[in-house]
Amino acid sequence: MSAPRTLFEKVWARHEILKGPDGDSLLFVDRHYAHEGSFHAFNALRKAGLKVRRPDLTTGIYDHYVPTDAARTPASAEIGDMITLFGRNVAEQGIRAYAPGDPHQGIVHVVGPELGETLPGFLIVCGDSHTATHGAFGALAFGIGASEVAHVLATQTIWQVRPRLLRISVEGRLGAGVTAKDVILAVIARFGANVGLGHAIEFAGSAIRGLTMEGRMTVCNMAIEAGSRTGQIAPDDTTFAWLAGREKAPKGALWDKAVAHWRSLPTDEGARFDRDLSLDASALAPMVTWGTSPEEALPITDRVPDPAAAPDAARKAAWAKSLDYMGLKPGMALDGIAVDRVFIGSCTNARIEDLRAAAAVVKGRKAVVPAWVSSGSTAVKLQAEAEGLDRIFTAAGFEWRESGCSMCVGINGDLLKPGERSASTTNRNFVGRQGPGARTHLVSPAMAAAAAVTGRLTDVRKLAAN
Amino acid sequence: MAMQPFTALDAVAAPMPTPNIDTDQILPARFLKKPLGPGYDKYGFADLRFDAAGNEKPDFVLNNPPYRGAGIIVAARNFATGSSREAAVYALLALGVRCVIAPSFGDIFYSNSTKNGLLPVILPEEAVNRLLALLAGKPGTKLAVDLAAQTVTGPGDLAFRFEIDASRKMRLLEGLDDIQLTLKYRPEIEAFERAYAAAPFGA
Ligand code: SF4
User: Fold this and answer.
1) Which of A84, A95, A126, A201 can pair with A90 through a Cys bridge, CB separation 3.0 to 4.6 Å?
2) What is the pLDDT of residues B91-144, one digit of tens each?
């Protein structure tokens, strides 16, 4: 009998080509996703006179810079140039890329799984910190910088120092109106935005197992907001059912073989983690961030905290700075804070299930502030249209946008104005993230929908279904 | 992106006591499309350094004369968390920063910086707090960082030792290019690839 191993250890071991003389490992990369932001890496490759070693294992996806208006008009010539440049880079290197007009154009972390290119046990990298999303399938997936992207393009491998292992177990049943987004925000609020630094996280426990794949992706997506490059969830029947029949997923006898392999991946009984943390799911409420770090989050039923009550001097100063930036006063009820705009989108919360949850709240109501929906992928958009969700949103006055990163980061020009306050289904409430001076409150899709129809941060549980 | 070796540095250090200074603040997203080259320093901390009209904000530490051109930043926990943008490292280097000392770093930034000759030094929170207080109290104070010895030293007998992975230390000291290093292992990579392809999904 071999010693019990974790999911992480099994996937790592299978990809380890060799150990370097100084203790790091050279790992084989099954899949690399590239987007328009990868240009520094393509430049570096060109400068070194190298070609992409395995163009068949890189998939290009247009997301960060693409416009999301119906006509797909770049907000500036410079932004248009970035899109053209990406097209040149992938064409020159023989990489398949999904551009606007293709049903699989969308946000890289929505499209990869949707195509079935993300599979359990794979090692997946992308020059984007939310690559952890793919860990929802039991892949080992992490974001990398441009130098590492260039290295992957040139060698199909990556050097890594093995992280420590952290398990976060969420046990129990989620209450009505409490979603995967609330779980991960609660985890980060409880344990801090740096709890996962230097660690690979495995999310476990009955509440995690009970999530759909969309929910699991939302949780793993924000592992990086908990400080970790990677978050994983053990693959199970929910995973396999979601993947079966997808375009790039294995088929026939190979599928059966794959499933048999994937069933061997979950962490063995008795395997060791460097750290174990747990959270009670039944105690959770819908969450909302009040500050400028994702750890600055509270249940919607709570109040804006008082810096005077902060646990230490550093946090006292940080909270005061956050409140000043956010334009909030200590003691204000979170429920009722007026917002200027609502954004439903991003790789965190723009999958079909997210749109369904938001539409269920919006149905029969009117948005009282400008509100956008930008689907996670064009395929999600088409599916939502087939289900009639687009008509629910447009009848309520929402803008039904094309797919892309859009207002999550505003690289394409979709920005808030200085001082504007948004309820947003994205993942970062950082200073200036949605535009200079913009104020972001992170929430679930249902909570964003509730904010749109009331014009305020609102406990969605108070809005009866129409 | 050519890697400059890092051996030792003796430079003015600037204090940034706010935790969670993310890479969106170090390099705002709208500058990500800018090519590298002269003028890249303008983008570093742009929204903290400049107001909407482009004037310097006097309250930002690097605009304060004694800290201007600081080669070292001493920061609070979780420095450069968030986005994987390596451009945050390029912006720091363009500003002349070669070393950041903090109790913790965003993991991706930590790795990115070591690929570009910027040394991230992890010190315990108490040590960083001492440094922050010292730098705020005596603007313009210089610190000395020695990677081979793994030490940070300052005025008087101020001295701290830090840990760093042997692999990262070696690459920084020698300014090694990872791709050239890896290509030496080509036979091993190809052998692995053949065996891996022959047994899809583990069987
Ligand atoms: S949606 Fe936002 S977080 Fe996700 S990949 Fe795009 S910019 Fe990054």
Assistant:
1) A95
2) 999 999 999 999 999 999 999 999 999 999 999 999 999 999 999 999 999 999
> A409: Cβ below 6 Å to ligand 1?
yes
Please list, residue by residue across A280-306, b when 16 or more beta carbons sit within 10 angstroms of its beta carbon and e when fewer do. Answer: ebeebbbbbbbbbbbbbbbbbeeebbe
CATH code: domain of residue A206: 3.40.1060.10
Q: What is the pLDDT of residues A84-104, one digit of tens each?
A: 999 999 999 999 999 999 999
Q: Using most ligand atoms within 8 A of CB, pick from A426, A430, A440 the residue to mutate for ligand 1.
A: A426
- Please indicate, yes or no, if residue A2 is contained in any of the structural domains: no
CATH number of the domain bearing residue A326: 3.30.499.10
HSE toward the beta carbon, residue A155, CA cutoff 13 A: 28
Same domain, A390 and A452: yes
Question: What's the pLDDT at B1?
Answer: 47
* Count of structural domains, chain A: 3
pLDDT tens for A305-354 read 999 999 988 889 999 999 999 999 999 999 999 999 999 999 999 999 99
- The amino acid at A60: G
Whether the CB of A144 is below 8 Å from some CB of chain B: the reply is yes
Q: What distance in Å separates the CA atoms of residue B22 and residue A285, rounded to the nearest whole number?
A: 27
At A465 the pLDDT is 64
Residue A19 in contact with residue A46, Cβ under 8 Å? no
Residue given tokens 């535009």 in the structure block? A435
Q: Would the pLDDT of B63 be above 60?
A: yes
Range of the domain at B108: 8-174
The verdict on A324 and A451 lying in the same domain is yes
Residue A432 lies in a domain: yes
- Which residue from A22, A257, A318 is facing B19, i.e. has the nearest CB? A318
Sort out which chain B residues have CB atoms less than 8 A from A229's CB and list them. 107-108
A82, A128, A351, A422, best to mutate for ligand 1 pocket (most atoms within 8 Å of CB): A128
Is residue B41 in some structural domain? yes
Q: How many CA atoms are closer than 13 Å to the CA of A41, on its beta-carbon side?
A: 32
Q: Is the pLDDT of residue B72 over 90?
A: yes
User: At a CB cut-off of 8 Å and minimum separation 6, what does B76 contact?
Assistant: A314, B16, B17, B18, B19, B20, B21, B102, B103, B128, B132
Q: Per the CB < 8 Å rule, is A409 touching B29? A: yes
Domain-located, residue A1: no
Mean pLDDT, residues B79-90 taken together? 96
Distance CA A13, CA A263 (A): 16
Indicate if A324 and A445 belong to the same structural domain. yes
Q: B84 and A159 in contact by Cβ < 8 A? A: no
CB-nearest partner of B165 from A23, A257, A264: A23
For residues A364, A365, A367, A373, the Cα torsion angle rounded to the nearest 10 degrees is -40
* Pocket perturbation via mutation, ligand 1, pick of A375, A405, A415 by most ligand atoms within 8 A of CB: A405
Give the pTM.
0.96
Those of residues 437-456 in A touching chain B at CB distance below 8 A are: none
Q: Are residues A178 and A143 in the same domain?
A: no
Distance of CA A238 to the CA centre of its chain: 19
Q: pLDDT band at B3, cuts 50/70/90?
A: confident
Q: How many domains does chain B have?
A: 1
Query: Is B78 within a domain?
Result: yes
Task: Supply the residue whose CA is at minimum distance from atom 6 of ligand 1.
Answer: A405
pLDDT at residue number B119: 98
CB contact under 8 A, B107 and A193: no
Query: Residues B136-187: pLDDT tens digits?
Result: 999 999 999 999 999 999 999 999 999 999 999 999 999 988 998 999 999 9
Within-domain flag for B29: yes
Ligand 1 pocket check for A140: Cβ under 6 Å? no
Residues of chain A with pLDDT under 70: 1, 465-466
In CATH, what number is assigned to the domain containing residue B167? 3.20.19.10
Domain membership of residue A413 as a residue range? 289-464
Instruction: State whether A404 and A430 are in the same domain.
Output: yes
Identify whether B191 is part of a domain. Answer: no
Q: What's the CA-to-centroid distance between A408 and ligand 1, angstroms?
A: 6
Residues A220 and A244 in one domain: no
Q: Are A239 and A371 members of one domain?
A: no
